[in-house]
Specification:
mainly alpha, 77% helix, 0% strand
Length: 123
């Protein structure tokens, strides 16, 4: 599944999931039991989708830092390439100390740039 699809699913589950599931279960059981079951399933689905999204983001940041390490780039170097985020922000994205997630598009762009820089360096 693509990142965009996972984000859309996460948003839909977050907003509409519990209520829609309650409507599915209500004709078959007491409304209180239907509500409890629906919100229990909603919580599990939300957890599954958000776990998948976070894992994909961690994987992308790990790949980015592997490329940066091979090129000898630091958080300050990444910061110069992305004015939106400072060196401290990038330091907080290191896989061993992951506390911050920059925008997915920024990570994808930087990964592409660093891959190209590594290819030029090797060639």
């Amino acid at each position: 599944m693509s990142k965009r699809l996972l984000v859309v699913l996460e948003t839909l589950v977050l907003i509409f999931g519990g209520g829609l599931l309650r409507l599915v279960f209500e004709p078959f059981m007491n409304w209180r039991l239907a509500l409890a079951l629906a919100y229990g399933l909603w919580a599990v689905l939300l957890w599954l989708v958000s776990t998948r999204v976070a894992a994909n983001r961690r994987r992308a940041l790990t790949e980015l830092w592997q490329l940066a390490d091979r090129l000898g780039y630091t958080a300050a170097d990444l910061s110069r390439r992305t004015p939106r985020y400072g060196a401290i922000d990038w330091q907080l994205t290191r896989p061993e100390n992951l506390q911050f997630y920059p925008a997915d598009a920024t990570v994808a762009r930087l990964t592409r740039e660093l891959t190209e820089a590594l290819a030029r360096r090797v060639a």
